Amino acid sequence: MEKLIIATRASNLALWQAYYIKERIETSFPGVTVELNEITSKGDKILDKPLALIGGKGHFTKELEDEMLEGNADLAVHSLKDVPTYIPEGLELCAITQRQDQSDVLLSHTYKSLDELPQGATVGTTSLRRRMQLLEKRPDLK
């Protein structure tokens, strides 16, 4: 029996993704067992600043890369949108799953859509991309 170790962030989304890949591997290769190596990344620890101010995407992948380079993990599972364009020597991007629905969602106790939000309403997001999309559609939002 062969064992593979997946490095993954310990967030709920990352764990869902890693368990999904674990199940796909174990179903496709019945002789292989997969374990998860859960890691809390620097990006997970810095909660009081926007990513753009602390250096961007690499803060979520650096520790995963280190685990693979040190031999503590055979692969890492991570959201492609957060993978930096630079991949360290010795590692490669070798598989991408089929893309699922990538829609964003508005969560509100009162309003059913962006259009229903009152003029000048405040919308919370830490994503610069989402901020730009919101302001394109509704320049009055804060």
Please describe the structure with a list of short key phrases separated by commas or semicolons.
three-stranded parallel beta sheet, alpha/beta, 142 residues, D-Maltodextrin-Binding Protein, domain 2, elongated, 3 strands, 2 domains
Q: Would you kindly provide a written description of the structure presented here, covering whatever features stand out?
A:
30% of the residues lie in helices and 13% in strands. The protein is elongated, with a radius of gyration of 19 Å. The protein has a three-stranded parallel beta sheet. The mean pLDDT is 87. The chain folds into two domains: 81 residues, 3-Layer(aba) Sandwich (D-Maltodextrin-Binding Protein, domain 2); 40 residues, no CATH class. The protein contains five helices and three strands. By secondary structure, the chain is α/β, with parallel strands linked by helices.
Low-pLDDT residue spans: none
Order of helices and strands: EHEHHHEH
Number of helices in the DSSP assignment = 5
The rounded distance between the terminal residues' Cα atoms is: 55 Å
User: Looking at this structure, what is the CATH superfamily of the largest domain?
Assistant: Periplasmic binding protein-like II
Strand content: 5-15%
Name the average pLDDT: 87
Q: Structural class from helices and strands? A: alpha/beta
CATH-defined architecture of the largest domain: 3-Layer(aba) Sandwich
Return the domain count.
2
Q: What is the spatial order of strands in the main beta sheet? A: 2-1-3
Write the CATH fold name of the largest domain.
D-Maltodextrin-Binding Protein, domain 2
Tell me about the biggest sheet?
A: 3 strands, parallel
Shape: elongated
Tell me the total number of β-strands.
Answer: 3
Give the C-alpha Rg. 19 Å
CATH class of the largest domain: Alpha Beta
Oligomer kind: single chain
